[in-house]
Specification:
Largest sheet: 6 strands, mixed
Number of strands: 6
Organism: Reyranella humidisoli
Strand content: 25-35%
Shape: globular
Number of helices: 2
Oligomer: single chain
Pfam families: Ribonuc_L-PSP (PF01042)
Strand order of the largest sheet: 1-2-3-6-4-5
Protein name: RidA family protein
Structural class: alpha+beta
InterPro entries: RutC-like_sf (IPR035959), YjgF/YER057c/UK114 (IPR006175)
Order of helices and strands: EEEHEHEE
């Protein structure tokens, strides 16, 4: 099955892109609140989640999908106590859509100051 790639310019390594579409599936790489200069945006986990979901939404849009097409998220947080704030921000971003989801606490993310990273999968009509 052919795949189309949709980089967003914030990828830090040449072997991956933000978004790939293959058939009806759209996969969004682990996404954080880093801006194009590699700076952390958002002072807390809720703000970082909101910013991250905007980036995911843009990645989905580039591949012809929308947040309502999401079927799965995997969320990594550096502090499990942020689970409620992250879940609330994710729910607000999804605007009533539902997804399957896993939230995992990790000891650190790639850049100091990052509190949240989210992977996402969507399914769209071909």
């Amino acid at each position: 099955m052919a795949k189309k790639v949709f980089p967003d310019g914030t990828e830090v390594a040449g072997f991956y892109v933000r978004t790939i579409k293959s058939g009806p599936f759209v996969f969004v790489s682990g996404t954080t609140s880093l801006n194009a200069k590699g700076q952390v945006q958002g002072k807390d986990a809720a703000q970082q989640t909101t910013i991250t979901m905007r980036k995911i939404e843009a990645g989905l849009k580039s591949a012809g999908a929308r947040l309502g097409d999401l079927v799965r998220t995997t969320i990594y947080v550096t502090d499990i106590r942020d689970m409620g704030a992250v879940s609330a921000a994710l729910g607000k971003a999804l605007k009533g859509s539902v997804v399957t989801s896993t939230l995992v606490a990790v000891s650190a993310l790639a850049v100091p100051g990052l509190l949240v990273e989210i992977e996402a999968t969507a399914v769209v009509d071909v």
